[in-house]
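May I ask for a protein sequence together with how it folds?
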Amino acid sequence: MSKRDYVNTSVQEPPLDYSFKSIHVIQDLVSEEPRTGLRPVKHSKSGKSLTQSLWLNNNVLNDLKDFSQVVSQLLQHPENLAWIDLSFNDLTSIDPVLTTFFNLSVLYLHGNSIHHLGEVNKLSVLPRLRSLTLHGNPIEEEKGYRQYVLCNLPRITTFDFSGITKADRTTAEVWKRMNIKPKKGRVKQDVL
């Protein structure tokens, strides 16, 4: 099967679902059996899953140590990973490993323990990210939370399960002009 065929067919594949498994560390995924849904996940000849979605929600993860290595063990084409659900875990930051999956278009991080709004900036390198959730994290309480995210991730179309409107974008731009100071360049002083 060519890479093109894989991309076309795998979008419809069900997720590799490890939700509600009480997983503490990513390495546990290798020995844990994923949940079975109505349709089984297809596997390659080598036994790896042919899916673009990985659900790890409702566990007790507090970091993503070894995430890339484990995903490579589980998925035939980890570079095509498009949807990661890490909602309802104990993550305190957005691990930079998530920014290495350039085909990521859906990322659920709601219901975690992310405290610093600046963590969002890491996600700006993901060219295909369109849907993001962060509600239920301490950062949601920060003033300008929604506007900050929209300013820093202008390509997303859905945030916290709500579509982003033109009015949202306008409000975010106004908020940005009022709250984010531009970096000042050095002003040359004339020497007499």
